[in-house]
Amino acid sequence: MFMDKLIEKIMEKNNPIVVGLDPQTYLIPQCIIDQYSKEEEPMGEIFWQFNKAVIDAIGQRVPAVKLQIAFYEQWGIEGLKAYQKTIRYAEEKGLMVIGDIKRGDVFSTAQAYASAHLKGPFECHAVTVNPFMGRDSIEPFLSLCKSKEKGIFALVKTSNPSSGEIQNLVADHKPIYRHLAQRVEKWGQDTLGKYGYSAVGAVVAATYPKEAKELREEMPNTFFLVPGYGAQGGRAEDIIHSFDDRGLGAIVNSSRGILGAYMQHKGKEVTLEEFQQSVITATEKMKKELLQALKENNKYQVYTEEEHQKI
Ligand SMILES: O=c1ccn([C@@H]2O[C@H](COP(=O)(O)O)[C@@H](O)[C@H]2O)c(=O)[nH]1
What we know:
Elements: H1 2-13, E1 17-20, H2 30-36, H3 42-58, E2 64-68, H4 70-73, H5 76-92, E3 96-103, H6 107-118, E4 126-129, H7 139-147, E5 151-157, H8 164-167, E6 170-171, E7 174-175, H9 176-187, E8 200-204, H10 209-218, E9 224-226, H11 236-239, E10 250-254, H12 256-259, H13 263-266, H14 272-296, H15 305-310
Parallel strand pairs: 1-2, 1-10, 2-3, 3-4, 4-5, 5-8, 8-9, 9-10
Antiparallel strand pairs: 6-7
The chain binds the ligand O=c1ccn([C@@H]2O[C@H](COP(=O)(O)O)[C@@H](O)[C@H]2O)c(=O)[nH]1.
The ligand O=c1ccn([C@@H]2O[C@H](COP(=O)(O)O)[C@@H](O)[C@H]2O)c(=O)[nH]1 binds near residues 22, 227 and 230.
């Protein structure tokens, strides 16, 4: 069951962080660009080498990576080959892999999306889905959650500044995000795992802590994927409500905050080793911030004594 495996990886690594592999060109160190720009498919190779460097640096330290497919799609076939190669490599390294694809469509089209991303060429352990079109648009993904032990994270409260334009509109005396939450919680009810979380998770952003608190109460069996930390302004104190009293219930994403941390000190001119060290340092810093906030709020049960000592 996907959510059980994710939770066990989080406990094994003592770390509720998912690193976003979003290879925006401005984030790529010059040394990688220089070395691979003469290849036949330079952007594909540059993205792949960039991701490999990140995975080699943090693969032992974090439970999961999330790939935002848009950054690969914009480079066409080359980009998608790098996407595919990165998924396989991350899996080989024992990481849980989330494809951030935000799909959802009429049933027959959703079947094709689910097939491509949960069992076909771009198979991941879990993907993000857009529930705007209702249950039948998600059904093909749900079936693969059951038959292939996959997971999904449905958009419920997103991190962007305009997310309230639709998600906070009130219908039947409550905001749309709460209507979405009730449905998402229900869609997962027949896939509950041993930690009490279903295969159907929700995207609940770090940038809206008040809503996250409401949503944790509304969705006791729904695991949260939390974007918006760091680069979008989300802080450690903003994510604590997304976790349950054991310190489970959420995994927090950071992409630019980790991949681009090196630029604050050295600009693009770093060695590969310096880049990898900066990825490790940024990940460890974020982990410390998160675990400290969880500890201060007595939501620390699942993390080991050794981690307690470090904080
Ligand atoms: O509400 C959402 C849903 C998804 N995202 C994605 O998460 C990462 C965030 O990247 P940062 O660089 O850490 O800001 C990115 O892939 C988004 O597409 C989100 O930000 N908000």
